[in-house]
Amino acid sequence: MVKKHKKKKNKQGSKKGLAWWQLSLLGIGCTIGTGYFLGSSIGITMTGPSIVLAFFLAAIGTYIVFLALAKLTSDDPQEGSFCYYAEVAFGPKLGFGAGWNYWMSNILIIGSQLTALSILSQFWFEDTPLWLFAAGYSILSIGVVILGTKGFDSVENVLSVIKTAAIFLFIILGCLAVFHVIRGDAAGPSLNMSYQSLFPHGLKGFWGSLIYAFYAFGGIEVIGLMAMQLKSKEDAPKAGTVLLAVVAILYMVSLGLAVSMTALSDFTDKESPFVTALTSYNLPFFPHVFNAAIIVAGFSAMTASLFGVSTLLVSMAKKKHAPKLFEKKVKFHDLPIASLGLAVVGLILAVVAALVLPGKLFEYITTAAGILILFNWICILLSNMKIIKQHIGWKIVNVVGILLMLLAIAGILLEDTGRPGFYLSLFFVVAITIAAFIFERKKREELQAK
Questions:
Q1: How far apart are CA 256 and CA 215, in angstroms?
Q2: How far is CA 400 from CA 62, 82, 425, in A?
Q3: Which of 92, 112, 93 is nearest to 38 (CA)?
Q4: What is residue 269's DSSP assignment?
Q5: What is the pLDDT of residue 12?
Q6: How many CB atoms lie within 10 A of CB 32?
Q7: Which contacts of 438-444 are long-range, i.e. CB under 8 A and separated by 24 or more positions?
Q8: Cα-flanking dihedrals φ and ψ of residue 18, to 5°?
Q9: Comparing C-alpha atoms, which of 348, 389, 324 is closest to residue 114?
Q10: Residue 299 phi/psi, 5° resolution?
């Protein structure tokens, strides 16, 4: 039961909006991106076959966050989602911080996805400069967002089907390889179940890989942000459960097949593990098909992030957590033009950073974005525990989720390449915290002036 607080009535009629399965499909589109198609390679090089276990733990942690957000959403659906609940639970400073933390993390993710798309496109056009691809994908993404909510939903649903089909294609080919229907140049699929084989770099490597598993599930916030678009708000839990069940099964089955199909030494952080796994099977069409699928996945996730930050900034402006300018919308598809404009500025800066700075340095920025997302998820769990009266069992479940995410964040410190990203994330958190206190002081001064 939700504690008493002021609720805003939902004026949206029940006849219009998304069905629960449409929100699930949209969530799949927002979740499956280059974090899974490419980032999982880093996790595999760190921990080997036990990456499947890392993804299983990440799925559990993500599902706990989803349950917390779904309960808040179904009891009290509000624009701004987790930012609104953070403010109800802990006051305006945390609501302000949660919103800008999410905005910043997604701007960084957009730049990361765009850089990956540009590099992947050079697979076919080696001599074309990265900035040209980046500019092209940026224009396409902005175009999709300009189509408005209905246009965005339609495009994302199509892209979701395409990239999900690509994963199924790999699973089918992997199964054919397991049963020796197709044969490669190397030895057939096998998986030694000894501790040394499953954890080749010990528990330290496994611990460090958790952040990459969690990062691959980033995007579940769409269930909260888009819940207001549902025909029946009570369907939010069902939509998210289907979303996470499908994504978790696809992730673990495909990764389990990948690590059993080739030697661990073959995997690198420069190539998708699924392309690596099928390299020796002489399937000339597969690298092209899967490269296209990764581009679709990255573009889909990037566009979803751009749409999400533009939509959220409108809600933040209504709460006076952002300048009033960002609240305004134009009649054309009810477009938040100022909010989208700021996101585009952030996108341009992220692209410039991605293309100008050394590759490793921008990987640090991407890692920082993943940590910021986990900070938001922890905030969701704390808000749930504060707002909703619950039995001790659910409190324990929420605490387990928080511990899993803190474990993933701490694991970054074990790897030299991850530490700069950790420190960078702390910089953003400190900067947002300072801004939140300044915001609160100005708000208090305005009230006193009245």
A1: 18
A2: 11, 19, 23
A3: 112
A4: T
A5: 39
A6: 29
A7: 439/92, 439/93, 439/96, 439/321, 440/92, 440/93, 440/96, 443/92, 443/320
A8: -90, 145
A9: 348
A10: -65, -40
Distance of CA 193 to the CA centre of its chain: 31
Model confidence at 305, in pLDDT bands (50, 70, 90)? confident
The secondary structure of residue 420, as a DSSP letter, is H
Nearest Cα residue to 313 out of 99, 24, 67:
99
Q: How many CB atoms lie within 10 A of CB 356?
A: 10
Residue 388: phi, psi to the nearest 5? -100, 130
Tokens, residue 98: 């949660």
- 385 pLDDT higher than 80: yes
Say if residue 378's pLDDT is above 90.
yes
Amino acid identity, position 257: L
Q: CB–CB of 116/38 below 8 Å?
A: yes
| DSSP assigned state of 234 | G
**Residue 230 forms beta bridges with which residues?**
18
Q: What is the pLDDT of residue 224?
A: 63
Q: What is the pLDDT of residues 313-358, one digit of tens each?
A: 888 888 788 888 887 777 666 677 888 888 888 778 766 766 676 5
CB-CB contact of 367 with 105 (8 Å): no
Q: Is 230 helix (H, G, I), strand (E, B) or coil?
A: strand
For helices 51-75 and 39-47, angle between their N-to-C axes, nearest 10 degrees: 130
55-70 as b/e: b if 16+ CB within 10 A: bebbbebbbbbbbbbb
For residues 284-300, one letter each, b for 16 or more C-beta atoms within 10 angstroms of the residue's C-beta and e for the rest, the string is eebbeebbbbbbbbbbb
CA 113 to chain centroid, in Å, comes to: 11
DSSP secondary structure code for residue 124 in this structure: T
CA distance 20 to 49: 35
**φ/ψ of residue 335, rounded to 5:** -85, 125
Residue 122, pLDDT above cutoff 90: no
Block residue for tokens 């659906």: 77
